[in-house]
Amino acid sequence: xxxTQLETVPEPKYWHLKTVLSEALDQDFAVGEILPNERxxxxxxxxxxxxxxxxxxxxxxxxxxxxxxxxGTTVAPPRVGVAVGSSGQGWPGESVDGWELVDADGAEAAxxxxxxxxxxxxxxxxxxxxxTVRRTRVSHGQAVAAELLxxxxxxxxxxxxxxxxxxxxxxRAVLRELQRLALEGQDRSVELGSARADDAKExxxxxxxxxxxxxxxxxxxxxxxxxxxxxYRGDTCRLTFADSGDVEITHEARVAS
Length: 257
What we know:
The protein has about 260 residues and is α+β, with helices and mostly antiparallel strands. The protein has helices spanning about 15-30, 40-45, 50-60, 115-120, 125, 170-180, 195-200, and strands at about 65-70, 70-75, 80-85, 100-105, 130-140, 140-150, 185-195, 210-220, 225-235, 240, 245-250.
């Protein structure tokens, strides 16, 4: 990186700095390389550390940088291509989809949020147990998403205590019983969010890091049978919408300038 201070430009200084840093990442740094610390970078470019942080945050949002616990800020690899879903997709776990079971109804099972309870059916569901299945999505050997699947007890009446109190065996049992239902359809929404502490840990991110939250509602003729809340790494995934309305995550090649 050079030492030339930034000239006065009509655009915000942090935005101009972001462009300069992006060019430097293409020319001077390799994927996975650790950037100098904030104090050194700020001195090199003659900017305040607050301005530098704004530029680094923008580059992280664009997937150019990653903040890693205990390591620092590194140059991110190209975004990974992962298919999120299609109109023909069935129940979770029906086919090989890159998801790995982690747990179900463990000691740290997450309680459904008010928004999830509303999707599940509101007050009626709040009065009954809700099974929580944790899954992690892996692509190219890297964890790219963490999912919480919420299944009301009424959706899986055949589930018994002998299916296991917790863990992957319990998760498989919940999914098996869910698949006995006749799936009528599903709907999906996507929004930008911040990584919660548990998701950040699973995805090797810092709490509060930008993520993409994909919420899927699975329904039968009787109503909502399950809700999935999947948190995708915002720095490794790029979502696109096909003509059919399906959501996909496509690979984005990075070309050096």
